[in-house]
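As the next step, I selected for study one protein, both as residues and as discrete backbone shape codes, as given directly below:
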Amino acid sequence: MRYQFDHFIFDAHNARLSGPEGEIALRPITLQVLQYLLENAQRLVGHDELLDNVWGRQAVSVGVVSQSIRELRQALGDSARNSTFIETKHKLGYRFLALPQLIAESGALPGVSVATGSQGSDRIAAPAVTVNDGKRRSTTAALLALFVLVAVGIGIWSQLRSAADTLANPWAALEPTHAGRPQEPEALAWYWQGLEALRRGDLIGAREKFERALRREPTSAAAMAALAEVCAQSGNFVEARQWAKSATESAAALPRSAQLRLEGFLAGLEYRRGDEIAALQALHKLDPGDTEAGFRLLDALIAAGRQVDAERLLGQISKQPSPALDRSRLALVKSKIAGIRGDSRARSEAAEQAFVLADRDPERIDALLELASAQLLAGDKSAVQQTLDRTDALLLISPSPAAALRRQLMAATLQSEEGQFVESIAALHATARSALALGQLRLAAEARREAAFVMTSAGDHAKAVAELESVLDEQSRLGDPRARANTLDVLSIAQQRNGDLAAAEASAKVALQNYLDASDLTGEASARNTLGMLHARSGRPVDAQEQWEKALALFLSSGDRRGEAMARSNLAILYARGGRVDAAREANESALAAFREINSTPDIARLQFNLGVQDRRNGRIHDAEIRFREALDGFTLMGAEDFRLQVVASLGELLLLRADLEGAAALLSSVELSESAPAPRRAAIETARAREAALRGENETANAGFRIALQLREQAGLGDWARMSELDLAELAARQGRLGAAEQSARELRRAMLKANDALAGLQVGVLLAGALSAQGHVEQAGRLLDDLEKELANNPDTLQTLRVDLLRASMRRSGKEPALEHVAARAREIGFELLALRAEMLTDGSLASNARAELGRRGVAIDGMPPPIPY
């Protein structure tokens, strides 16, 4: 085995150190010290460890160590004060600072021959019980940083990784422990080859090599831990935990640092976040300069949702002066934390920084894939494609099957975002098959899960549910609760879109429990957010508020600004539906500020839409239209068709309120509805088009549109929205003069809406009921109802409903009717409700009514056949 560092080469086989001027003469014991330091490069090696492993704990003093270190420094031209090669940590030990390169001989792995034999083909069963054969010698090195790539991204290599979309540094040391490697030469050869296969993402090959190493040396803690790592990367956590537990038991005689590494590793696999962090903190405290321990602790803190602590530790590690500190890896962690906050711009900038700081192509590929992920979440699809093209160029130079799989997964997701559902599903299934060929069970499940999600986008909900249930069966066998939780999240969405809200809620609850089992605070917050959504759609606002408030608390504690903003915006919708207008606006404004802080363009567009809805309700029609148009531009630019449809429907209805039927028709006709569009969005467009038809007097078209919307909402399990479609049909009946039917339907709907605490909907149907009563001559009864509505409006202000109530009041007056109607018309016109203003003027006498009728006709609004008290 030969090591090269700077201008020096150390030949371990021949015990020879050579420099620029030839061979350097040193005592054999000093050369053994050099070899041990090289094998453990960049790791602090204590005095006792050197005495154990070089002198064998003979009757010697610690002074012999200092003497050999002095000889090495003199030979290398090094200085204790300004170290280039050997750093002294007072009272602790020594660290070899440079990162040596292994010089392979004759194309073989470092310094050992490869054994062959039929035994390597037989699978070793995961151990049920392990034994400890006593004290073992710690050898070889952190030099493996040169050989070991982490298979990262979707196939996360262990549960030390974050719950968020993460990337690890490809040159990070992969071994859970630096100690306990095989001593028997052939076992060590297989061990090295296993690490090389692991670097390539060939988990099947890596497993075979580690199993061969364990046949030669069954008690090697490092080989057991490495095999546990392979199982974890593949997604088989049941077996990974068995091997990690055996490795931990076999490490009893290893240095304390090795024990802490393995304890943390096992705790991470078992989702014992507190124990994991405690072990890694102890390891980091034992040697603050151990950057690998620092990085693992960072990952554990992030996985536990302790983002503030992670950022503090990241700052501490960044300040370390060690030349061996991997700055590219630091930038990737920074990107990960920014991603959890939801700050896509900061995440992209950190990923670009990681690319610039990277020394090798595999590092650069990881940085580019992280960048593409950030760009995809930000909705910048053209930038994603450019980044994937850059990734392809590097993969041609430095092929990596594992990285190529992650690239394929992202490209397939991009296809889905662009509406290429068939192509995306095919690509995801191909990725799953390729992942299985490499032993990447977890990545294969991820690809199948994404394929099912695309199926839901394409409208094939039943097939998606079947696919996801199959994935869940496999994940249950593999024993990873967090992976199951992710799949259950998608299953809940598919079931919801399939119209089975009860099943969707059940899946969401099981997902929440799995996140709790995995001590995943970020996942728990997300699951509670989903449950709140389901409760809200099922007409259970109290339950929805409880879940959203719990989610908000979790997002706040973890520093997740995007999650916090989402929870606030969801609560705002709930507040608005309950009539708490000021609370809703405050929550939305806080959410918007948070989204602007993290530069989340999609969320800003969504919040602008929500605020537009509130502006419309509060009578700020001009502001509402501006917000709607900004939201529409944002969603159109991002290609977010789902959200774009909702904005088009809302903006179209706003234009109808302004009596701009021509503008509304042009906007609504620009949309081509497909069967794959989500049912709520299709229903919104159908409703807006039906309302336009009703205003034009095209009653059959309007009736058909409202009934399509009702059917879509019922099939999607949206009971509250289905009632709104029934209200639309009742209003159409009233416009057609079928007042008895309209009254009966309105009474039933008002009871249901008030029971569901839907204050705004209750007001709307109450106005219709009052109008129907008045048109039938039940003026006193209508007046009493208007009294009730005015009280409700005091608690739940709504400008349009207030004007409609005032219009009914004015139309029912026996004296002073003309000025009252003119006053309502003037207020409505000042705000921007031109349709209602013209309706009020049409109910007057004389030229004002004649002009209003003419203007309504010019705008395409039907004026005949509608009972006078029924307001637009």
Summary: The mean pLDDT is 85. The first strand starts at residue 2 and ends at 5. Residues 577 and 758 are 6 Å apart (CA to CA).
